[in-house]
Automatic annotation (TrEMBL), chain B:
The lineage of its organism: Eukaryota, Fungi, Dikarya, Ascomycota, Pezizomycotina. Residues 13-344 form the RNA 3'-terminal phosphate cyclase domain. GO terms for molecular function: RNA endonuclease activity. It comes from Amorphotheca resinae ATCC 22711. GO terms for biological process: endonucleolytic cleavage of tricistronic rRNA transcript (SSU-rRNA, 5.8S rRNA, LSU-rRNA). This is 18S rRNA biogenesis protein RCL1.
C-alpha cells in the first residue's frame, strides 16, 4: 500500500475503529485524522491575551452553531459534472452496472 | 416504575437530535440535551420542527415527560412506552394526527425516518397523518429527501429485519414543495406502519452489493407546468442511459395545495403555496435490498431550469453509486440502529468508505455506544478489490419493551 506523509499511513480501517470512539475528538476531527489531513500534535494554543481567549469560542462550538442535520450531502455539481464527463470515470463506474461485460472483469 | 433519580445521558447541541431521542425511547434511558443553539443570536434554542417532533413523540408514547427550559436551549426527555396509535391515547380512528406549523423548513422525511425506526418496536401499529401548513413532501434545500425516496429507498430496508413491507404504507394525499422562503407547505402524508416485531432479525449484508440493474424514480411538479417533469426526466435519462437501459421515472403533476392566507380581514381566504418541482431517482441492484437514491429539488427562490435539476440528480446518483456498499448514507442510520436493537447476535453490514467516513455515521456509532450498544467492529472487505468496509454490529437484545411486558 501507499505511504502518505512519510511515516504515517492513513485511511486505514483499523485506525478508524480506534478513532471512532475517542471522545476527545469531534466526529469531524476523527475523519480528518483518519484521512491523514492533520498532524497528531495539532492544538489550539495560539491565544495569548487572557480576556480575549475567555470570550473566544472553541472551534467545535463554532462548527456546531451552523450545523443542521442533512440527509442529502452538499455537492459541488460543477465538479461532479466534470468528473462524470470523463469517459474513464464512467467506464470504471460501469463495473457497478449490469450492462458491464463480465468478460473484462479480470483485466480491469 | 421509574427510578427516583434517573440517570440522564448528557448530550449537547441539536446535532442528531431526532436520532438521540429515538435511541432514548428505544432503550428507555432519559436524556438531557443542553447548549441547543445557545450561541445563536437569532434562533436560540429548539427550532419549530424540533418542537413538533417532540410533540409527535409524546403522542405515540405513553408516559413520556418532556421539559424544555425557558430559552429552549436545554431539553430533558424521559421516554415512556411506545404505544403507537392507540384509541384514547391521542389517536382518533386509529390515526395520530401530527400538525406541523407553517414555520417549518424541514421536509416531512425529517420526521418520517426517525418515526419509522421507532415504529417496529411499538405495541400497536403506528399510523400517523402529517398535515397542517408545514408539511413539505418534496426534497428540501435543508437537505431532506422527498417522501418518494422514503417510500422507495428507506421503507424497503425494513424487509431484511423481518418487518413485513406489505404492512408498511406511505400515502401522499397532497404533495407540496417548500413554500416562499423555504418555509412551510400544505402537504398531507399518512404513514401506516402495521408490522411490529419482538426483535428485528439479525442482518447479514456483507456480501457484494451487486450491480445496478435498473433505475426508478419520481419527477414531481406541484403548481407548475407538467412539462417540467418531462424535461427533468429527459436530461437525467440522457446521462444515465449509457449505463442502464431500464430506466423508468414516473411523472407526478399536482395542483399546489391551498392553505389559509392568514388574512385577518378575511379569515376564510385561501392561497396557494408550496410551488415547485424536483426529481427523485432510485437505482436498484441485482442484489435484493440494495438501493441507491438521489434527490434534488428546485430552490424556492427559483432560478433553475428543470434540465439543471435532472442533471444534478443524475450526477448525484452516480456519485452515490460510486460510493458503493450495501446501504447509502441516507439509509445508514435506519439499518445500523435496527441492527443494534436486534438479538444478541453479530450482524454484518458492508458500507462504502465514504459512507462510514461521514460525520453522521461516526456520530451514530458514538451515540449507539452511549446508549449501551457494543462497539462496532470494522474490517476491510477482502473478497474483492473494492475499498468497502464491513461493520460488525452486535445486537443489544433491547427489542420491543411493550411486547415484553404485555
Amino acid at each position: 500500500t501507499r505511504r502518505l506523509h512519510g511515516q504515517r499511513r492513513s485511511y486505514r480501517t483499523a485506525d478508524l475503529a480506534k478513532l471512532i470512539y475517542d471522545q476527545a475528538l469531534t466526529p469531524s476531527e476523527v475523519l480528518k485524522r483518519w484521512r491523514g489531513e492533520v498532524d497528531e500534535e495539532e492544538g489550539d494554543n495560539e491565544g495569548s491575551d487572557d480576556e480575549e481567549t475567555f470570550f473566544k469560542k472553541s472551534s467545535a462550538e463554532k462548527a456546531d452553531e451552523h450545523y443542521e442535520d442533512r440527509a442529502i450531502p452538499i455537492l459541488d455539481y460543477d465538479q461532479l459534472e466534470a468528473k462524470w464527463s470523463v469517459d474513464d470515470n464512467i467506464e470504471s463506474l460501469r463495473r457497478r452496472f449490469t450492462t458491464a461485460t463480465l468478460l473484462n472483469e479480470g483485466k480491469s | 416504575m421509574a427510578a427516583p433519580h434517573p440517570e440522564y445521558l448528557r448530550f449537547t447541541t441539536h446535532r442528531s437530535l431526532t436520532h438521540r431521542l429515538v435511541l432514548s425511547t428505544l432503550t428507555g434511558r432519559p436524556v438531557h440535551i443542553s447548549q441547543i443553539r445557545s450561541s445563536s443570536p437569532t434562533q436560540t434554542g429548539l427550532a419549530p420542527h424540533e418542537i413538533s417532533f417532540l410533540r409527535l413523540l409524546e403522542s405515540i408514547t405513553n408516559g413520556s415527560s418532556i421539559q424544555i427550559s425557558y430559552t429552549g436551549t436545554t431539553l430533558t426527555y424521559s421516554p415512556g412506552l411506545i404505544t403507537g396509535s392507540v384509541e384514547g391515547l391521542g389517536a382518533s380512528g386509529g390515526v395520530v394526527k401530527c400538525i406541523l406549523p407553517e414555520t417549518i423548513r424541514r421536509g416531512v422525511s425529517w420526521f418520517l425516518i426517525p418515526l419509522c425506526i421507532l415504529a417496529p418496536f411499538s405495541k400497536a401499529p403506528v399510523n400517523v397523518r402529517f398535515e397542517g401548513d408545514g408539511v413539505i413532501t418534496s426534497a428540501t434545500e435543508t437537505g431532506d429527501i422527498s417522501v418518494d425516496s422514503v417510500r422507495t429507498a428507506i421503507l424497503p430496508l425494513y424487509e431484511k429485519f423481518g418487518i413485513l413491507s406489505s404492512k408498511l404504507e406511505l400515502r401522499v394525499l397532497q404533495r407540496s414543495c417548500a413554500g416562499p422562503g423555504g418555509k412551510g407547505g400544505g402537504g398531507i402524508v399518512e404513514l401506516r406502519f402495521g408490522s411490529q416485531v419482538r426483535l428485528p432479525k439479525t442482518v447479514h449484508m456483507n456480501r457484494s452489493p451487486g450491480r445496478v440493474r435498473r433505475i426508478r424514480g419520481v419527477a414531481y411538479s406541484t403548481g407548475v407546468s407538467a412539462s417540467n417533469n418531462a424535461r427533468m426526466i429527459h436530461t437525467a435519462r440522457g446521462i444515465l442511459n449509457p449505463l442502464v437501459n431500464d430506466i423508468h421515472v414516473a411523472a407526478q403533476y399536482d395542483q399546489a395545495p391551498l392553505v389559509s392566507s392568514r388574512d385577518k380581514s378575511d379569515p376564510g381566504a385561501k392561497k396557494r403555496t408550496g410551488i415547485g418541482f424536483g426529481l427523485c431517482l432510485v437505482a436498484e441492484s441485482s442484489v435484493d435490498g440494495v438501493l441507491y437514491s438521489a434527490d434534488v429539488v428546485a430552490p424556492s427562490s427559483g432560478g433553475v431550469t428543470p434540465e439543471d435539476i435532472g442533471k444534478q440528480c443524475a450526477y448525484q446518483l452516480l456519485e452515490i453509486i460510486s460510493q458503493g456498499g450495501c446501504v447509502t448514507r441516507v439509509g445508514a442510520a435506519t439499518v445500523l440502529t435496527l441492527m443494534a436493537m436486534g438479538s444478541e447476535d453479530v450482524g454484518r453490514l458492508r458500507l462504502g468508505r465514504d459512507v462510514i467516513g461521514t460525520e453522521d455515521v461516526v456520530g451514530l456509532g458514538r451515540d449507539l455506544k452511549m446508549f449501551g450498544a457494543s462497539n462496532w467492529g470494522l474490517r476491510d472487505v477482502d473478497e474483492d478489490d473494492s475499498t468497502d468496509i464491513i461493520v460488525s454490529v452486535k445486537g443489544t437484545g433491547v427489542g420491543n419493551i411493550g411486547k415484553k411486558i404485555a
